[in-house]
């Protein structure tokens, strides 16, 4: 394992140097072999479960690793905490993966730190395995996400409502910089650290911003045009560019969540990664029956983080990030606001476009349909968009009133294109009074010359046949807790790793929850 530690090179205001706690009896429960390969972990390590258990419990640091707990702040359910930080996690270093991307290696549940407040710094086996299953499923579904490399049982109990076996989960993410990291320094008024964090984040996640700026500068120099885009403006424009890049990543992320029916459950600003990856799987869940107001988290009584409220919340979180960046954009508040504000106000429109583009793929409409190239002169792109949007909205409305399962309905829709039985099942699910929706959909495909084969292909790529259904996740976690055996998890993961293909084993995990998950509740697991 080849560790480096660029985050440590930032000032020590960014973290606490602290070792993970040692644990009495580490034993490896899960090891993510394909992720290990991506991280170029040597076979002499990856084939040695005892050594892996030592490393990924925190008992022994691998060569080159250095352990820190990161500082960050955050808005939790709308209320600001100036200091949260890694209260039960240790970043042990970074590894460059086979694609050349720098990845953080973080232990979670590895003991208390300066940021633990009243917490014990530990994690129970259930939430650790849950994070492993959910993140692996999301990765296979094609959603940007942190992943899990290992789960190690610690051999000691952690105390929640009752004693539970403890575990350490190793999380791999392209960084752990959050909106809350920016808020931490902004709230302290520590502008030097804020600037340092911004520079680091740009060079780690959005190096293209500086490349473009550099090219512009050389262009300007070569034409010796000192009047137009003054070089002095570049650093400030760079911050606006940065915010725009972050916002675009968040839009893409939430669109992908909504494609597969994912509800994060706790989209606090400290759980919003700047990289645009899904992090912190605490109370997350998959939507069963379609309803925009679906909430499963026991602590989200107001539905702040409900399925269809996720875009609004990300916009709100981006506004909080924007506030932090204002002083770096311009010393003059008003000028700074003028430059930043359009990015926030355009969010809804940009999100809507991206969302409907995604939805159109779920019903087999290829992208050129939106601009309707053939009829560009007769119809404006906007009109066509509205027609497509109406087809999508009508389908979702029907799904809501008929209380249909989100995943199953789109899978049925896909099959219905060349399977009479599925077509009949679809019509009966939508209900007699809504059967004209299918006619409108088919007519649209035909009139836009989208052949059924290519529509089906597109739909197959966008509509999973299997997701980590809540009742299966819970049943498997219970079994793991009771038996300590991981066979069922591995079997489940085997299916979840091919979410767009029906394997012989898939059927066992496709059944719907008896109550449509009406009474399902998730907990933070802290
Ligand atoms: P989360 O809800 O997991 O995003 O955590 C919110 C904050 O609480 C973060 O600062 C965590 O590090 C901290 N935290 C959560 N669980 C624990 C725990 N068991 N011990 C210490 N700190 C925790
Ligand atoms: Mg968190």
Description:
The chain has 526 residues and is α+β, with helices and mostly antiparallel strands. Among the domains are: 7-176, no CATH class; 183-355, no CATH class. It has helices at residues 33-38, 43-46, 49-55, 125-141, 179-188, 191-205, 207-223, 234-260, 310-329, 333-345, 347-362, 368-371, 381-401, 406-415, 420-430, 435-447, 452-462, 470-483, 487-496; strands at residues 15-17, 27-31, 68-70, 74-76, 79-81, 89-96, 102-108, 147-159, 163-173, 262-263, 285-286. The strands form 4 sheets. A 5-stranded antiparallel sheet has the order 2-8-9-7-6, sandwiched between helices. A two-stranded antiparallel ribbon has the order 1-3. Helix 5 packs antiparallel against helix 6 (191-205), helix 9 packs antiparallel against helix 10 and helix 14 packs antiparallel against helix 17. Bound molecules: adenosine monophosphate (AMP) and magnesium ion.
**Coarse morphology:** globular
* H and E order: EEHHHEEEEEHEEHHHHEEHHHHHHHHHHH
Proportion of helical residues: 40-55%
Number of helices: 19
Named once each, the bound ligands are: adenosine monophosphate, magnesium ion
Q: In order across it, which strands form the biggest sheet?
A: 2-8-9-7-6
Mean pLDDT: 93
Structural class: alpha+beta
End-to-end distance: 30 Å
| Uncertain stretches of 5 or more adjacent residues | 226-233, 376-384
Number of strands: 11
What's the gyration radius in Å? 24 Å
Name some characteristics of this structure.
alpha+beta; 526 residues; 5-stranded antiparallel β-sheet; binds magnesium ion; single chain; two-stranded antiparallel sheet; binds adenosine monophosphate; globular; 19 helices
